Predict the structure.
Amino acid sequence: MINRHAQPLSEKEIVEIAIGYAFREEGLKQLAGVFGVSATTVKRRLAAFGVCIRNTHQQRHCDRRRGRFSQAEAIHGAWGRGDYDTEAVRTSRKKWYGYERHGERNPFFGKKHSDDTRQRIAEQARTRVISGTGEYGDDWTEELRERIVARDGHRCQVCGADDRMLQVHHVDHDRTNNIQANLLTLCASCHLAYHGRRELVGAMRAAHAVLMERLTQAPGVPPC
C-alpha cells in the first residue's frame, strides 16, 4: 500500500470517503486503509466536509449490524492477547480517561443509579445469561471431572486452548445430568462467554456435535 500521509486527498476521493462512511457505514480505519492515509486524516477531512463523526460504540454497532464484527471472535482474540489479565489491568491502569478510578476525581463519585436504571440494567443482564438448573449430586466428583478433561485431550473444545483454566460444562444446563455425552471441556473464558454473555451458542452446538461423533466412533465407549 502506498503511504500518502503527506499527500492531500482530492475532492473526488473525499466524496468517495464520505459516501463510504455515511452510506456504507465503513469505519475510519477501514477507509484509511483503502485510500492509503491515516485515520486521523480521514476524520479531519470528513469533519471539514460536514459529516458527523461516529464514536467507537456507534461504529461497533454499525459493523455488527452489517456483519463486519463478531463479538465472539473479538473476545477470543482478547483472551489470546492476554487483555483480560485482571491483575495486569489493576496494576497498569490506575486512571481511566483522565479520571482516577476511585475517589473524588471519579466522575461517578457520590452518585448512584436510579431504581429504574438499576432495574433496566438487571433486565438487560438477565437476557444475556444462560443459567444452569438443578444441584450437583453425589455423582459429580473430581474424578469424573478429571476423566472428562482427559477424554477431551486437556483442551477447550471450543477454542482449543490448553494453557488456561479448564472447566466441565453441562451441555443441557442440568447439573444433575452427568452422563459423559452431556459433559464438555471448556476453558474458563469460553464458559463465561457462553453462560454469562450468550455469545458462543452456535460454537457450543458445533463442539457438542463433534463430541457426539467422537463418542459414537470410539470403540467400547458408550455415550451414556
Residues 115-224 form one domain. The chain has three domains: 11-65, 71-100, 115-224. The first strand starts at residue 95 and ends at 96. The chain is about 50% helix and 5% strand.
